């Protein structure tokens, strides 16, 4: 192990750069659809050794001393994000005549920008670097901080935070309910980096023992929650809501084609909604359609509302994704919102919610006045793009069920699980991942949605045009669902639909306490107190 560590520490030039990129790319095997979390042990062990060897001239200034570590972290991040996000280019190929030119920006440009955060994490860790266990604590704190910043800066994009690699199955998700995905990220980097101590000896016994203890606690807490902790008493069968998820698997190119038969798309959703329950089950109380499933402005189409009323029974509810238009008056452009409608059995819209967190370059164009001069436009065709809602509010359904609505990638943001969510009975997430085809993207999106359920202690109702649609309980376990690119529907009940609201820990507070503990370990180790134990 020491010989291998020495070789990695001393590697230089192009070989060093390629090794850093390869280490980052290999870590992606821990993410869906693979879930091989052990891959990150190798990746972060290599990263620690590479930072060990990231030396600068002694007479360099602060930036010069930190630059080699930054470059190493950036290369690692570039490999990680290219390997983990290449599928974003698939969305540009839906209308390739218009957007194929932007493929290099999606596949290489975005990863290059996101990798800056990992470069900063490595540089920050280098400030507190020491020969012993403290350096992996510093690296863990650096990654925790930078992953959090990645979730908030420039509207944020926390996709594939390192912590998800530590949570491939529900047994390994439960810690997120206590410290959140960002807290899991920080501790995961510490655990994944621990084998590096065996290659350099100093701090090895204490560091590896602490990492093993943390990993055991991670698994032990998951086992307690899933198998030993008392669960709320189940609701009687007649008080459980039956939810139908409709997954039509409409091709994205057809949804965008102005010449397509939009009525046929609409009728496909209606047909799946009207199907009799399978195996003699109860008819659904709530029917859910995916994001932008209604292919026209619903409020301008009374015939469509009548068709919905004809399809639904009097006491059934339809929840559907649609584009909502808001007229602003003479001379003012119409505003469009990516919305959710709740429609009753009489065809009346009884509730609605608009998307708050829009996708840059997908649903709106940042710096629009400047970029339109260069011919750059939104991927989604909409005059002026979508408008963002000022706030999010619960969808209050008849019967007392309160749903916390999240449209598409809004569910990847842990910090947005706030406000009214304390009064929610379940999270509702509708999405359209058909943009990304049969790539890792939909699997990664689904995993992040499951972790939100664990963090908040709420079940999840998730409906996706092309999959993955599922009912997930408050522990991230899949009750039932439809796989990627399946067409059909699924009916399900859950104890918590109509039951009590979820309970949440103060995740942000616990995350910062985790960060403080790691920094304390780094500082104490740097002063030699911990390394002296070895």
Molecular structure report:
The protein is α/β, with parallel strands linked by helices. It folds into 2 domains: about 1-230 and about 510-534, no CATH class; about 235-495, Carbon-nitrogen hydrolase (Nitrilase/N-carbamoyl-D-aminoacid amidohydrolase, 4-Layer Sandwich), CATH 3.60.110. It contains 17 helices and 12 strands. α8 crosses α9 and α13 (about 260-275) packs parallel to α14. Mean pLDDT is about 90; it is low at about 530-534.
Q: For this structure, what is the CATH class of the largest domain?
A: Alpha Beta
By CATH, the topology of the largest domain is: Nitrilase/N-carbamoyl-D-aminoacid amidohydrolase
Could you give the distance between the termini?
A: 18 Å
The biggest beta sheet, please?
Answer: 6 strands, mixed
Radius of gyration: 25 Å
The CATH homologous superfamily of the largest domain is called: Carbon-nitrogen hydrolase
Indicate the overall shape: globular
Question: How would you spell out the order of helices and strands?
Answer: HHHHHHHHHHHEHHEHEEEHEEEHEEEEH
| Poorly predicted residue ranges | 529-534
The CATH architecture of the largest domain is 4-Layer Sandwich
Strand order of the largest sheet: 5-4-3-2-1-12
Compute the average pLDDT. Answer: 88
Q: Number of folding domains?
A: 2
Helix content: 40-55%
Q: Strand fraction band?
A: 5-15%
Multimer state: single chain
